[in-house]
């Protein structure tokens, strides 16, 4: 398994192997209770079973009771004990989840108080949007940008189906905001996209039909088989209920597909963070009355847009998100 550079650094900082008191055995700095634990990278989760990569081996594991309520998600780095042979029917135990570098979260909808982590330790959120069939949904893009900003992930706009429509309009609205993008279609060379994915952990999100599976299959030839024919964790059966699956890229790095993720509820994101994710509007919001919720009549953002600093459509999008969080309007 080739870990992206940042994961490797993380590993070295986190588990410092040094001689024990008597200089006889190496031991980890923390929790010497599981001195013999090995480190795994969680690539799929399905019905209480965790698929972990340990060196080149696929090890199936369950949670150890001592983990308590701590969740384990795709992208986590975990300490494993027990049978880590990777033989059929072998089952290891996850005894520890290493501290996360990032956590992509969502709530079921914008007013749901329960947030859940979808993916840990990712670097980048790839927002897959078709240029046509289905029509692009800028409000969905804005929503994903907020999720990326909140999680500390770099966004990347991936505009698919460029054989059907021009990217100019979408590029015209997002490139000035500093959002990086790639334009592609199913018969295109994927060189530019691969360059942006290499040596990083990227999460792909996108609505049904935008061409996400087509993209994943083109980037990772083994993906098709892994997803459609076998349970990705146990290797048996036909189906998986997994909501995220990590695939290693041939050129290094990982992409994490999120087939089960259909929406990005943002109830857990502070309104100020929502506004901060709209860089074209954030500056204008500095002129708002204190505690402005940006939905009230004296909000300074109307003037900001009237003066031509930002597009009305972006303000509408921000307001829909904020209103939806307050439960006053569906998005
Ligand atoms: N014209 C065109 N069609 C494409 C392109 N990429 C994918 N398609 C078609 O769009 C449809 C949806 O593609 P998928 O890859 O299944 O889309 P998805 O986002 O994975 O959708 P779900 O499987 O529903 O999650 C399929 O009929 C593809 O053949 C493209 O670049 N151009
Ligand atoms: Zn305001």
From TrEMBL:
<keyword id="KW-0479">Metal-binding</keyword>
<dbReference type="GO" id="GO:0003924">
    <property type="term" value="F:GTPase activity"/>
</dbReference>
<dbReference type="GO" id="GO:0005737">
    <property type="term" value="C:cytoplasm"/>
</dbReference>
<feature type="binding site">
    <location>
        <begin position="160"/>
        <end position="163"/>
    </location>
    <ligand>
        <name>GTP</name>
    </ligand>
</feature>
<comment type="subunit">
    <text>Monomer. Associates with 30S ribosomal subunit, binds 16S rRNA.</text>
</comment>
<keyword id="KW-0694">RNA-binding</keyword>
<keyword id="KW-0342">GTP-binding</keyword>
<keyword id="KW-0963">Cytoplasm</keyword>
<feature type="binding site">
    <location>
        <position position="288"/>
    </location>
    <ligand>
        <name>Zn(2+)</name>
    </ligand>
</feature>
<comment type="similarity">
    <text>Belongs to the TRAFAC class YlqF/YawG GTPase family. RsgA subfamily.</text>
</comment>
<feature type="domain" description="CP-type G">
    <location>
        <begin position="111"/>
        <end position="264"/>
    </location>
</feature>
<dbReference type="GO" id="GO:0046872">
    <property type="term" value="F:metal ion binding"/>
</dbReference>
<dbReference type="Pfam" id="PF03193">
    <property type="entry name" value="RsgA_GTPase"/>
</dbReference>
<keyword id="KW-0690">Ribosome biogenesis</keyword>
<feature type="binding site">
    <location>
        <position position="299"/>
    </location>
    <ligand>
        <name>Zn(2+)</name>
    </ligand>
</feature>
<dbReference type="GO" id="GO:0042274">
    <property type="term" value="P:ribosomal small subunit biogenesis"/>
</dbReference>
<dbReference type="InterPro" id="IPR030378">
    <property type="entry name" value="G_CP_dom"/>
</dbReference>
<dbReference type="InterPro" id="IPR027417">
    <property type="entry name" value="P-loop_NTPase"/>
</dbReference>
<feature type="binding site">
    <location>
        <position position="292"/>
    </location>
    <ligand>
        <name>Zn(2+)</name>
    </ligand>
</feature>
<dbReference type="InterPro" id="IPR010914">
    <property type="entry name" value="RsgA_GTPase_dom"/>
</dbReference>
<keyword id="KW-0699">rRNA-binding</keyword>
<dbReference type="GO" id="GO:0005525">
    <property type="term" value="F:GTP binding"/>
</dbReference>
<dbReference type="InterPro" id="IPR004881">
    <property type="entry name" value="Ribosome_biogen_GTPase_RsgA"/>
</dbReference>
<keyword id="KW-0547">Nucleotide-binding</keyword>
<feature type="binding site">
    <location>
        <position position="294"/>
    </location>
    <ligand>
        <name>Zn(2+)</name>
    </ligand>
</feature>
<protein>
    <recommendedName>
        <fullName>Small ribosomal subunit biogenesis GTPase RsgA</fullName>
        <ecNumber>3.6.1.-</ecNumber>
    </recommendedName>
</protein>
<keyword id="KW-0378">Hydrolase</keyword>
<feature type="domain" description="EngC GTPase">
    <location>
        <begin position="120"/>
        <end position="262"/>
    </location>
</feature>
<comment type="function">
    <text>One of several proteins that assist in the late maturation steps of the functional core of the 30S ribosomal subunit. Helps release RbfA from mature subunits. May play a role in the assembly of ribosomal proteins into the subunit. Circularly permuted GTPase that catalyzes slow GTP hydrolysis, GTPase activity is stimulated by the 30S ribosomal subunit.</text>
</comment>
<dbReference type="GO" id="GO:0019843">
    <property type="term" value="F:rRNA binding"/>
</dbReference>
<feature type="compositionally biased region" description="Basic residues">
    <location>
        <begin position="18"/>
        <end position="32"/>
    </location>
</feature>
<feature type="region of interest" description="Disordered">
    <location>
        <begin position="14"/>
        <end position="35"/>
    </location>
</feature>
<feature type="binding site">
    <location>
        <begin position="206"/>
        <end position="214"/>
    </location>
    <ligand>
        <name>GTP</name>
    </ligand>
</feature>
<keyword id="KW-0862">Zinc</keyword>
């Amino acid at each position: 398994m080739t870990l992206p550079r940042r994961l490797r650094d993380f590993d070295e900082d986190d588990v410092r192997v040094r001689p024990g008191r008597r200089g006889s055995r190496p031991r980890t700095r923390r929790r010497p209770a599981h001195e013999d634990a090995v480190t795994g990278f969680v690539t799929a989760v399905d019905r209480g079973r965790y698929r972990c990569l340990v060196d080149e081996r696929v090890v199936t594991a369950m949670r150890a009771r001592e983990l308590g309520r701590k969740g384990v998600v795709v992208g986590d780095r975990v300490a494993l004990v027990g049978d880590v042979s990777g033989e059929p029917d072998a089952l290891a135990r996850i005894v520890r989840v290493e501290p996360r570098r990032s956590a992509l979260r969502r709530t079921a909808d914008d007013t749901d108080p329960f947030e859940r982590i979808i993916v840990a330790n990712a670097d980048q959120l790839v927002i897959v949007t078709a240029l046509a069939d289905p029509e692009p949904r800028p409000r969905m893009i804005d929503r994903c940008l907020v999720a990326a900003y909140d999680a500390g992930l770099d966004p990347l706009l991936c505009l698919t189906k460029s054989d059907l429509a021009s990217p100019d309009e979408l590029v015209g609205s997002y490139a000035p905001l500093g959002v990086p993008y790639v334009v592609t279609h199913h018969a295109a060379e994927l060189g530019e996209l691969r360059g942006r994915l290499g040596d990083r952990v990227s999460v792909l999100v996108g609505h049904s039909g935008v061409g996400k599976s087509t993209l994943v299959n083109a980037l990772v030839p083994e993906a098709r088989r892994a997803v459609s024919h076998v349970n990705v964790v146990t290797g048996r059966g036909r189906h998986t209920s997994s909501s995220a699956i990590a695939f290693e890229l041939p050129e290094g790095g990982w992409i994490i597909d999120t087939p089960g993720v259909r929406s990005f509820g943002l109830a857990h994101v502070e309104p100020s963070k929502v506004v901060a994710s709209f860089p074209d509007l954030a500056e204008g919001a500095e002129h708002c009355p204190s505690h402005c919720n940006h939905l009230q009549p004296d909000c300074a953002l109307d003037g900001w847009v009237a003066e031509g600093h930002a597009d009305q459509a972006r303000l509408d999008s921000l307001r829909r998100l904020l209103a939806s969080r307050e439960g006053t309007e569906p998005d």
